[in-house]
Design goal:
Number of domains: 2
Structural class: alpha/beta
Bound molecules: zinc ion
Radius of gyration: 20 Å
Largest sheet: 7 strands, mixed
Distance between the termini: 12 Å
């Protein structure tokens, strides 16, 4: 099959036609990937700010159709349209039982690039290929645990649905699951890429009264206002902390969301949020990044700093809700996809993202 392979950190991806994929084993499905978005997490691996062994096939924001099911799979059948999630969960381990589905232990090892027995189901020119971000969806086909494939209605565009798999479930979940924003509250969102704009949309859906979007890119700020931001500022021109306080009677915002993944942003949001307010780390920082909190102030003013992986989502619960919001016209999914490219142009798609051009570039796998 055709797939984009990363052979060396820092190098361009190689689109190869001779990547091999095993048939699905028990509890797995083989999915024909129709579309896959390009996300900052992929770029973190390309740049080396997150570590991976090579060769690896990345890609984790995908939708397509089930082509084949492994033994024991009964809830999906060939032909079913699906969106994939990089956080499959078993529903039975300690973490799933507590409701922390993104922390499921059964599939935790997959994030490291292989199944527990060390196999990856993918090989290239005789050598095993690592699984990047669980799904390895920069490829015509992928084999995933059935728990990673969520059935979507027939007739829905897989090009649009793909963005649910990472950006939208992360941003919407950060607001509705992790932070639980309530009507009338105030929100500051730093970073207005696909995740940040999903946070803006979800904050509007939750009824937030003040939604401040922060991004140096003017096009993204305009998009944020279209999606429901009440204010949009360039951090090079306006002070984030002062703006948050000005718009909230001097208190500071109820919630701050870092949709980039940088300690300076988190530290700024700890100041921009009110006493008792909550800062949510949504973007994935580099492994080398360390956040500092002011000890006494943090305790005395009951500041809250919480992590958020993939919007604390339960994809089988949340994807249908996201699709209902989209169907009702309350969540704009179409507006998230601003560029379409064939898989051959994956390096150009990465350049789009690095240049903050558009919101999301989605790759088409079919020739
Ligand atoms: Zn992602
Ligand atoms: Zn579990």
């Amino acid at each position: 099959m055709r797939a984009a392979v990363l052979t060396e950190v820092g190098a361009d991806l190689v689109v190869a036609d001779d990547v091999e994929l095993e048939a699905p084993r028990a509890g797995e499905v083989l999915v024909d990937v129709h579309h896959c978005g390009v996300c900052h997490s992929d770029v973190h691996y390309l740049d080396g700010s997150l570590r991976t062994e090579v060769p690896v096939v990345l890609g984790h924001e995908a939708a397509g159709r089930v082509a084949e099911v492994g033994p024991g799979v009964t809830d999906l059948a060939p032909g079913d349209p699906v969106v994939l999630t990089m956080a499959p969960s078993c529903g039975r381990c300690y973490f799933c039982a507590q409701g922390d589905r993104t922390l499921c232990q059964r599939f935790a090892g997959l994030v490291g690039g292989a199944y527990p027995d060390g196999s990856t189901r993918i090989s290239w020119r005789g050598a095993p290929v690592r699984r990047g971000l669980v799904l390895s969806a920069f490829a015509e086909r992928t084999v995933v645990p059935v728990e990673a494939a969520v059935r979507i209605p027939d007739g829905l565009s897989t090009e649009i649905a793909a963005v649910i798999g990472c950006a939208v479930q992360t941003g919407v979940g950060a607001v509705l699951n992790t932070a639980r924003v309530r009507a009338g509250q105030s929100v500051v969102v730093v970073g207005l890429g696909a995740v940040g704009l999903s946070i803006v949309q979800a904050a509007r859906i939750a009824g937030a009264a003040v939604i401040v979007g922060v991004d140096p890119a003017a096009g993204r700020r305009e998009k944020a206002v279209e999606f429901g931001a009440t204010d949009a500022i360039d951090p090079g021109e306006a002070d984030v902390v002062a703006t948050a306080r000005d718009l909230t009677g001097g208190r500071g915002a109820d919630f701050g969301f870092d949709a980039v993944g940088k300690s300076q942003i988190v530290e700024t949001l700890l100041k921009a949020t009110r006493n008792g307010g909550t800062t949510v780390m949504v973007g994935m920082p580099s492994t080398k990044d360390t956040v500092s909190v002011r000890g006494l102030a943090h305790a005395f003013y009951e500041k809250k700093l919480i992590g958020c992986y993939l919007g604390s989502a339960d994809p089988h619960r949340d994807f249908p809700r996201i699709l209902e919001l989209a169907r009702a016209g309350r969540l704009d999914l179409d507006g998230m996809v601003t560029t379409r490219r064939p898989l051959e142009e994956i390096n150009e798609a990465v350049a789009d993202l690095r240049a903050a051009a558009g919101v999301r570039t989605v790759l088409t796998m079919a020739r």
